[in-house]
Amino acid sequence: MDIKNITVLGSGIMGHGIAQVSAMSGYNVVLRDIEKQFLDKAMEKIRWSLDKLVSKQKLSQQDSDKIFSRIKPVVDLSESLKDCDLLIEAVPEIMELKKKVYAEVDKIAGEKTVFASNTSTLPITEVANTTSRPEQFIGIHFFNPPQLMKLVEVIPGQKTSKELVETTMKFVRSVSKEPVLCKKDVAGFIVNRIFIPLVHEAAWAIERDCTSMTEIDSAVKFRLGFPMGIFELADFTGLDVIHKATDVMYSRDKKVINPHPKIKELFEQKMLGQKTGSGFYEYSGDKYERVTLSEELASKFNPIRLVANMLNNAAWLVTNQVSDISEIEKALQLGMGLKKQIFETGKEFGISNIVNELKAQAKKHGQFYEPDPLLVAMQN
Predict the structure, then answer these.
(1) What is the pLDDT of residues 22-32, one digit of tens each?
(2) What pLDDT, on the 0 to 100 scale, is given for residue 161?
(3) pLDDT exceeding 70 applies to what percent of the chain?
(4) In the chain, where are the structural domains located?
(5) Which fold has domain 191-377?
């Protein structure tokens, strides 16, 4: 399969970012949205981003103009799909909306067009099966913002052809990104399978360990090698994003998350984090703000229950042949900015201690915490 012409459906943060990185790598891109005003705003943002690269001398003005001219904004769906090799859908994370979009697209797109959904949690197989070409359908999860984040998760559905998997991996590398293959269409794929349950577990830790958010966040940052605390990261990501991902993942697999009511509560109160001025923490302005964390606060909380939660989900991915340890570590480093490998952190805490922690939690709080067979086997 030869990819030259790409159509990106949806011109929001993800859509226009994917369009930009594709055009920067020499592809012809059609950016499609339902209204011209959305496209005008998206093209302004792409121009601003390219201008920034010119001002930093990472691009010449001539190259910037060439890249910009490769992106064609289009409202008409039929026109946007003419001669399209790869369609990347980046519409909001609402299953019914995605199905509706694919029902329209499936009738119009040429036979050669392959479909890729930029979803972070929705089941690829379910969406693919609403089309007449499930073997030509794949998940391609860029991380936010696509211009800066190196990681892309590639997720085949049950019927996706091997050829399309290879083509997609090759395409991801061609746009200067690092692909990680999620071999099975599981809830949360790789990164969210570890990140989203961890936010809930941290919320349970406040309640069960009588500790504070800043103590937990300091321990996560200074002892586990995260770029920021877990509550800080949740506020940065957006509690609306966390809540929606939780709902989808939990509906797909009850074993993946032990939902804490606090996340739903914050979502319902429209306390969504940095973007609304309050979430887990309060923020004073629009500008991105950091929470004050310290080594001293880190020493007051033992994050073993959080390490255990992460490792148990990572081990599940290996046991169920979704991924392997090195790919999981790569995904967490590039997708979450982890400075330390989680299996190395696990060894520092002691795998036996982690298994014992999970068993103790299972006894107190139920089967959800039962240790994965891989962790049990790794004790020796």
Answers:
(1) 999 999 999 99
(2) 97
(3) 99
(4) 5-181, 191-377
(5) N-(1-d-carboxylethyl)-l-norvaline Dehydrogenase; domain 2 (1.10.1040)
Spell out the long-range contacts of 107-110 with Cβ–Cβ below 8 A and sequence spacing 24 or more: 108/77, 108/78, 108/81, 109/81, 109/84, 110/81, 110/82, 110/83, 110/84
CB atoms within 10 A of CB 97: 12
User: Would you state the CATH architecture of domain 5-181?
Assistant: 3-Layer(aba) Sandwich (3.40)
- CA–CA separation, 8 and 6 (whole Å): 6
β pairing state of 28-32 and 71-74: parallel
Count of residues in the chain? 380
| pLDDT, tens digit, 9 for 90 and up, residues 131-148 | 999 999 999 999 999 999
Q: What is the pTM of this model?
A: 0.94
Question: CB-hemisphere CA count at 13 Å for 179?
Answer: 19
By the 8 A CB rule, do 147 and 59 touch?
no
* Identical fold between 5-181 and 191-377: no
Token pair recorded at residue 259: 């939902």
Which residues are within 8 A (CB) of 206 and not within 5 positions of it... i.e. 6 or more apart? Answer: 212, 213, 216
The two structure tokens encoding residue 87:
């369609």
55 burial level (CB within 10 Å; 0-12, 13-18, 19+):
exposed
Instruction: Kindly report whether the peptide bond that precedes residue 145 is cis, defined as omega within 30 degrees of 0.
Output: yes
CA dihedral sign of residues 344, 349, 355, 361: negative
Q: pLDDT by residue (tens digit) across 21-76?
A: 999 999 999 999 999 999 999 999 999 999 999 999 999 999 999 999 999 999 99
Q: What is the dihedral of CA 7, 275, 263, 303, to 10 degrees?
A: 100
Q: Which residues are catalytic?
A: 120, 141, 153, 192
pLDDT at 285 over 80: no
Q: pLDDT tens digits for 208-232?
A: 999 999 999 999 999 999 999 999 9
Exposure string for 255-294, b = 16+ CB within 10 A, e = fewer: ebbbbbebbeebbeeebbbbebebbbbebeeeeeeebebe
